[in-house]
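Duplicate of #3305? Posting structure anyway:
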């Protein structure tokens, strides 16, 4: 017996040919889509890298400008400190005609003329116990005078 191959239906082989033709048509479309996506992502990455570089350049420019402003600020602070120096202010005041003024003496009324107010004298005692009866503090004098004024106002 001779071996004969079984007959293959024509319809089945046509479907297989159509399937393989569809595969051969879709493969270039898929590859084109992948290449397009690769180009798109590469383009986006390039744009992002350019933006990062631009931002870095702006930061560097602003840093240089900030350092320049801080340097000017430090120079101005030094100039202000030199200008406010007491020696320069005294010289400028003297150039404008200002100087030390003479002391001003305020006359006391006669009621205070004999009172030792306890301030500034080198010959005055420093502790209260060593003071004599005729020496009194300004506080004692003020309270006594206030009491006298109150007695006058209260009495009809």
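Output from current build:
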């Amino acid at each position: 017996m001779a071996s004969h191959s079984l007959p293959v239906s024509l319809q089945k082989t046509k479907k297989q040919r159509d399937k393989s033709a569809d595969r051969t048509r879709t493969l270039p479309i898929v590859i084109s889509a992948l290449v397009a996506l690769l180009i798109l992502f590469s383009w986006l990455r390039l744009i992002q890298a350019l933006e990062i570089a631009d931002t870095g350049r702006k930061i560097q420019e602003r840093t240089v400008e900030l350092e320049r402003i801080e340097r000017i600020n430090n120079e101005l602070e030094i100039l202000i400190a030199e200008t406010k120096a007491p020696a320069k202010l005294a010289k400028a005041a003297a150039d404008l005609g200002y100087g030390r003024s003479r002391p001003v003496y305020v006359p006391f009324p006669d009621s205070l003329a004999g009172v030792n107010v306890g301030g500034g004298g080198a010959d005055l005692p420093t502790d209260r116990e060593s003071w004599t009866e005729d020496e009194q503090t300004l506080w004692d004098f003020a309270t006594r005078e206030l009491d006298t004024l109150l007695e006058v106002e209260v009495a009809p």
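Confirmed duplicate; merging threads. Residues 110-121+130-154 form one domain. The two ends are 165 Å apart (CA to CA).
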